[in-house]
Amino acid sequence: MKGKHPQDNRIAVIGGTGLESLLESAEEVRVGTPYGLPPPLSVGEIQEKAVVFLPRHGRGHSLPPHKVNYRANIYALHKMGIERIIATNAVGAINLDFELGDLVVPHDLIDFTRQRQLTFYEDAPVTHVDFSQPYCPEIRELLTQKAKETVDTVRDHAVYVCTEGPRFETPAEIRMFRALGCDVVGMTGVPEATLARELGMCYATLCFVSNMAAGIAGRISSREVTETSGLVRSKIHKILIDAIPSLPKNRHCLCGSSIKESRMGEPDKC
After folding, report:
1. Three-state DSSP class for 87?
2. Which end of the chain is more exposed for a tag (fewer CB within 10 A), N or C?
3. pTM over 0.85
4. Does a structural domain hold residue 270?
């Protein structure tokens, strides 16, 4: 990355510790924000395309999902000039057709978090961001395509429900989520997706089923999640390495312009 300023980066990956290995010639940077200090960011390249990696849970996976400073994370990427974010998430399968290790590219989400800072817009002008398509369709299409070139089964129509954590869900909660039409459950997808949209950034996620949700296949353990993560890590790496260089230079979605029609009471200043 020598000779490249962070502002030259337009793509970021958010995920767990270990994804830093995706990047060539990576350098660590710290970025301050009005919302606090996010974890150190790795700035590097994937096939000559500038990429920033943000370890969601901090170094050594030290932050539980309900303690992640999502606003600082997303704002830091925005401050660096990021336009597109590809996230990775471990999820539990609610849909009984899904299997351990399946890759999932969600198309919609439901928020069941309770105590997180969900917005950048807490003062005037009142801002209501359109969220009809929570995930960027352009990135979703590319992730689905590259995933299907890598594995046999890709679930490209799925509803992700985000819970507060850090505990796993109860069987009754999972039955409720299934009745609501949810397919997978995780603890980190919200408010990442909403905050990215508020700042006009594209956001989509590549999930993998790390466990069957509560009440489906016995007890759930963190060890099971970690073991499954190890089994699919190389596939996730390959998909990201294939997808990122294939992103077009210019965006052809509405993610960046949705904020223009969201403010009440005064003309847009974007």
Report:
1. strand
2. C
3. yes
4. no
